Amino acid sequence: MDTLPYDSRQLKHCAGDIIRNVRELAAAGWTPATSSNFSLRLDDRHVAITVSGRDKGRLVEDDIMVVDLQGQPVATSHRPSAETLLHTQLYARFAEVGCVLHTHSLNQTVASRLFAGAGHVHLEGYELLKAFTGNSTHETAIELPVLPNSQDMHTLAAQVDALLDQRCMWGYLIDGHGLYAWGRDMAEARRHLDAFEFLLGCELELRKLQR
Ligand SMILES: CSCCC(=O)C(=O)COP(=O)(O)O
Ligand SMILES: [Zn+2]
Fold first, then answer.
1. Of 203, 15, 193, 199, which Cα lies nearest the Cα of 103?
2. Which residues make up the binding site for Zn(2+) (predicted)?
3. Which value does ipTM take for this structure?
4. For ligand 1, is residue 81 a contact (CB within 6 Å)?
């Protein structure tokens, strides 16, 4: 009999979705050296998230585990991502958030260093801004926040909460670290992640050309 507090078929479904998508992100070089972490909402109290320290390009079903909305492991001895709190804070705060993706691509990491002083990356006038839910024209701008890095997830989560108190956003950079992006489901979170990656690449190229 299944006595788990979540639907194990749903976990299997989520694990497959994470594995398929992360394989593509890893093939693009966005998850170097066991970096990055990924999650999907299972239900209103549980989240499927990657186990800490695994090679994200070679994930198997056993590399996806369940945590509650406080980030505590549920019915498993696995250790969840070291950055679990940065995922669960979004699920706990927004009932509509269904997926959180975190990657360490070269563009994301270089941009986080370059724009750390400004505290944000200004993205304006790009057609691709329409990839972000809520935008319907290129005649708009997004400030992608760049937060100071910390090994203390409570410090990082407090910075994110302070930003979310002020504005609606679909992602942020952490200095010298990488990008967090989210959405209502995997497709939307992937679209946001892909759009941030492309736009950061554009900004870095422009900086090179303007030198
Ligand atoms: C070797 S990468 C350092 C940790 C990190 O930033 C990351 O994204 C992966 O951590 P996890 O515990 O989720 O494997
Ligand atoms: Zn990371």
1. 193
2. 102, 104
3. 0.99
4. yes
Asked if residue 34 has its Cβ within 6 Å of ligand 1, the reply is yes
Confidence at residue 211, expressed as pLDDT on a 0 to 100 scale: 85
Structure confidence at residue 67 (pLDDT): 98
Reported pTM: 0.98
What residue spans define the domains of the chain? 8-209
Distance 37 CA to ligand 2 centre (A): 7
Please check whether the domain covering 8-209 is classified as CATH 3.40.980.10: no
Cα–Cα nearest to 170, from 90, 83, 103, 62: 90
Q: Find the radius of gyration of the CA atoms of the chain.
A: 17
Write down the pLDDT at residue 1: 52
Edge to edge, the sheet with strand 141-147 lists 64-68, 46-50, 37-41, 99-103, 178-183, 171-174, 141-147, 120-124
Residues of the chain with pLDDT under 50: none
Residue 137 pLDDT: 96
